[in-house]
Amino acid sequence: xxxxxxxxxxxxxxxxxxxxxxxxxxxxxxxxxxxxxxxxxxxxxxxxxxxxxxxxxxxxxxxxxxxxxxxxxxxxxxxxxxxxxxxxxxxxxxxxxxxxxxxxxxxxxxxxxxxxxxxxxxxxxxxxxxxxxxxxxxxxxxxxxxxxxxxxxxxxxxxxxxxxxxxxxxxxxxxxxxxxxxxxxxxxxxxxxxxxxxxxxxxxxxxxxxxxxxxxxx
Length: 218
What we know:
The radius of gyration is 18 Å and the shape is globular. Strand 1 (about 190-195) and strand 2 form a beta hairpin. By secondary structure, it is mainly α. Helix 1 packs antiparallel against helix 2, helix 1 (about 5-15) runs parallel beside helix 3 and helix 2 (about 20-25) runs parallel beside helix 4 (about 45-65). The chain has a domain at about 5-140: Serine Threonine Protein Phosphatase 5, Tetratricopeptide repeat (Alpha Horseshoe), CATH 1.25.40. Strands 1-2-3 form a three-stranded antiparallel beta sheet, with no helix packed on it. It has helices at about 5-15, 20-25, 35-45, 45-65, 70-85, 95-105, 115-120, 125-130, 145-150, 155-175, and strands spanning about 190-195, 195-200, 205. The chain has ten helices and three strands.
């Protein structure tokens, strides 16, 4: 049975509804349940449309946490993406890249989900995005601000703590994957980019905004 939210998404796909209709329904999300099927319908839309739909759904659960957490909803998104590999006429060729595209999607103001979580002081959602789903913390918005530029007080503490966790996880993964024991892939052959250093052929970045050494994947 198709619920109201899924019906709206199918309407957007067919050109009968708009993203604004989706926002209206999401405000009543307590009456709806997000499932893998919800994202299955969204992923059938053209690229820009599906990105906008997925962003609106995930953004809603950052700004309005309820019975379903952001982590649970992203799990459904991941499941839908994984299942698309078996679908006929599937345009998705790289599942990991598809997932990262949605997690790091920039809205009209250039803000990612992580920007919005920081702006709303949503510390639990910040942890989910950074540690569980490896959101990129160095994406700039239209004002050239990365999430750490917008964070204050407790929110900034949580953000930096979880950036370090993400960096350590990626560092350990790279070390395990290194072909030469004790050698970290990529090294530190980088170029200075503004306030940070990003290695064009490396797994690490360094962000001086955080007043600490923080390394992660580029």
